[in-house]
Amino acid sequence: MKTIHLMAAAACVLVLAVWTQSGVHAQQTAAGADGPRFTAANELMRPTDFREWIFVTSGLGMTYNEDVAGAPARVPNFTNVYVNPSSYRSFMKTGQWPEKTMFILEIRASQSEGSINKGGNFQAGLSAIEASVKDSARYPGKWAYFNFGRGTELKDRVVALPTTQNCYACHSANAAVDNTFVQFYPTLLEVAREKGTLRH
Ligand code: HEC
Q: Cys-Cys crosslink for 143: which of 50, 117, 167, 179, Cβ 3.0 to 4.6 Å?
């Protein structure tokens, strides 16, 4: 009799343990677990699965320096913008970015000659990966900027760039929604207009 009781009690504990664990897990995925991950040394880890995030847009040959505009034509780069899925869903509802939003800017070379292509450009080798994170508990300026380095020498983890880097000034002065260049992201621009969250 005693053994049966003990076994029943053990089974209860097991069921409870599994139930609690799955509960905790569900909560983690709901609360933006797809966003930035940091090491104890405050380094941002480079997400290896950002190609499964939401693809926001792709810029082609965008340049921000007026003196470059008159210079001899350069081969344009593509800039692919990705955002973590839970923040994207939140933006679609509110037109604003929640805490723990993370963007990846993937810069790729463009190529025009290859295979059957007779005109236009397609994406080629990886040039660099940059990132931004919104986390006001971690960064006094709310947003922080990161550079994971160039194509063949990507770093797995990096600390935020110093706030003296031009990323901070350009994004905060010119971006349309909360440091992000929504003016260049057509589907998000519609949402921001509708929700009235555009700055410019
Ligand atoms: C002179 C202005 C300027 C500077 C300086 C600049 N950016 Fe940007 N950034 C832009 C523009 C414009 C876009 C939109 C790109 C597109 O549409 O492809 C952008 C997009 C981004 C995005 C995508 C999310 C967003 O904010 O819209 C990230 C991430 C990013 N930049 C990181 C950086 C980092 C890191 C640096 C510094 C090393 C930097 N940027 C410096 C203008 C700038």
A: 179
Testing ligand 1's pocket by substitution, the residue of 56, 105, 135 carrying the most ligand atoms inside 8 A of its CB is 105
Q: How far apart are the C-alpha atoms of 130 and 102, rounded to whole Å?
A: 11
Per-residue pLDDT reduced to its tens digit, 118-166:
999 999 999 999 999 999 999 999 999 999 999 889 999 999 999 999 9
Q: What are phi and psi of 104, to 5 degrees?
A: -120, 135
Q: Looking up tokens 């699965």, which residue turns up?
A: 49
Counting other chains too, the contacts that 30-38 makes at CB distance below 8 Å and 24 or more residues apart are: 30/86, 32/84, 32/86, 32/87, 32/98, 32/99, 32/100, 33/86, 34/84, 34/85, 34/86, 35/84, 35/86, 35/87, 35/100, 35/101, 35/102, 35/133, 36/84, 36/100, 36/102, 36/133, 36/135, 38/138
Going by alpha carbons, the residue nearest to atom 20 of ligand 1 is 181
